[in-house]
Amino acid sequence: MRIGFIGAGNIGSTLARLSVGAGHHVVLSNSRGPDTLADLVARLGPAASAATPAEAAAGSDLVVVTIPLGAYRDVPAAELAGAVVADTTNHYPDRDGRIAGLDDGTTTSSELLARHLPGARLVKAFNTIWSEHLATHGQPAGSPGRRALPVAGDDAAAKAVVAGLIDEVGFDVVDAGPLTEGRRFEPGTPAYDVRLDAGQLRRALADADR
Ligand SMILES: NC(=O)c1ccc[n+]([C@@H]2O[C@H](COP(=O)([O-])OP(=O)(O)OC[C@H]3O[C@@H](n4cnc5c(N)ncnc54)[C@H](OP(=O)(O)O)[C@@H]3O)[C@@H](O)[C@H]2O)c1
After folding, report:
1. How far apart are CA 191 and CA 208, in angstroms?
2. pLDDT tens, residue by residue, 97-136
3. pLDDT tens digits, residue range 41-89?
4. Alpha-carbon distance 85 to 88, whole Å?
5. Nearest residue (CA) to ligand 1, atom 6
6. Which of 5, 30, 147, 186 to mutate to test the pocket of ligand 1 (most atoms within 8 A of CB)?
7. Ligand 1 pocket: which residues have CB below 6 Å?
8. Structural domains in the chain?
9. What is the residue with the minimal CA distance to atom 48 of ligand 1?
10. Distance CA 30, CA 27 (A)
11. Potential cystine with 182: which of 13, 120, 124, 204 (Cβ 3.0-4.6 Å)?
């Protein structure tokens, strides 16, 4: 499939490389323009190209939004109506600033992005794993103790698309439920940035006190 990336930093470039390895085409974008991605595209080979965020969003089978949350209003909304979107973002107030609704737990970062993207089929994914572990912890399906990653979203078909990619790049998947349940694997929860297999991850999600 064609996977668009809005953001090509630690997580975006790592997931793009793994996606190319799994046989997908990737279209990368950032805030500074396609020219600044030439070296990365060259390293990834012929299955990779660079574009603007709007171009990466339009016509992709899956779009990965992987930018600092503070920039979420820049994500092109019209192009993402109806699209399957994987949201890797986390809220780090020191980096992203204070955002109303997140401090008091009224909402979650993924619900905030979903509100900005009407019609997008948003799945919270890949936010719990450090990029270096994303690059190194993957194992073939069926490996004992295989690390599992959580997903949350309101659209079952969209979750299946994202879960398929997670499996292809080396991880089991645990469905945490609807998008609002993404609060169970935000920063500071037992599931965040810890190597857990599927059974352990289910327990960690259940233990989250939010
Ligand atoms: N690092 C991790 O291990 C990790 C793990 C899980 C989740 N996350 C989360 O995933 C997100 C990305 O993290 P990261 O570490 O990959 O970030 P990063 O290395 O700082 O890269 C951010 C990327 O987003 C692009 N970007 C910034 N503002 C943009 C905008 N307005 N429009 C389009 N692209 C924009 C940047 O492009 P320019 O350089 O051109 O601005 C850059 O390519 C964050 O929300 C982070 O909290 C990170």
Report:
1. 8
2. 999 889 888 999 999 999 999 999 999 999 999 999 999 9
3. 999 999 999 999 999 999 999 999 999 999 999 999 999 999 999 999 9
4. 10
5. 127
6. 30
7. 6-12, 30-32, 53, 66-69, 71, 74, 88-90, 92, 127, 130-131
8. 2-207 (3.40.50.720)
9. 11
10. 11
11. 124
